[in-house]
Amino acid sequence: MSVLPLLIVQLGRPPEDVVRHAGEQAAWFAAELAGQPLAVVRPHEGQALPEPDRFRGAILSGAWEMVTDRLDWSERTAAWLRGIIGAGKPVLGVCYGHQLMAHALGGVVDYHPDGPEMGTQRVHCLPGAADDALLSALPPQFDAQLTHEQTVLRPPPGAVTLGRSTHDAQQILRYGPRAWSLQFHPEITPSLLHHCIARRREALSGLGLDVDGLLQGVRATPEATALLQRFAALA
């Protein structure tokens, strides 16, 4: 019997300089999910989101758009999310995917009041993470790659916060026994994060961020990256 694929839901397309540097989001996840059967859907291109019996679990990517834009393809994906989470499908949202899951299930998403969070930052696990099926192998603190302006200001009813950073209180959310989301990026390599920071040097400096310090602090994040294969094993 063939194994159903993991579904990568690529949300939007990166800027062209990012595509030239590292390709599109689906490729970043595929590189960290070697050996897993994968399928990719791009709702921003008008592609139809599949029925739950066509995949064994779904990963939602980050995006350069904003959840508060309420783009048609984003709202269509939010409605689809409500259906597959309700059906018990394993789901993992990342950055925009994290925020979209929270929005879809009744949370509040908007710009972070303290501005963007960038660079390799420390995430702290909260009570409950040690007993969670996805998170139990994480140490109490671990490094993760972050680049975002919007955030989950209020989680949906019933969601549990399982990780935070100094900047952002909602780094990891669990919505049920098989649905999680991460504000950080387990799929982003140090090289890609370095590029994402450097391309925004002027804007980030204008916000008072120490861009050189952020660039020098970029490092590998193996504990965060390992969550992708762990999710694949659970799906």
UniProtKB/TrEMBL annotation:
Domain Glutamine amidotransferase span(s) in chain numbering: 53-193
Protein name in UniProt: GMP synthase
Keyword Secreted among UniProt keywords: no
Pfam families: GATase
Listed PANTHER family: GLUTAMINE AMIDOTRANSFERASE YLR126C-RELATED (PTHR42695)
GO MF term list: GMP synthase (glutamine-hydrolyzing) activity
NCBIfam families: PRK09065.1
EC number of the protein: 6.3.5.2
A single GO cellular-component term on record: cytosol
Gene assigned in the entry: guaA_2
UniProt lineage: Bacteria, Pseudomonadati, Pseudomonadota, Betaproteobacteria, Burkholderiales
Domain of life: Bacteria
UniProt keyword terms in alphabetical order: Ligase
InterPro entries: ChyE-like, Class_I_gatase-like, GATASE
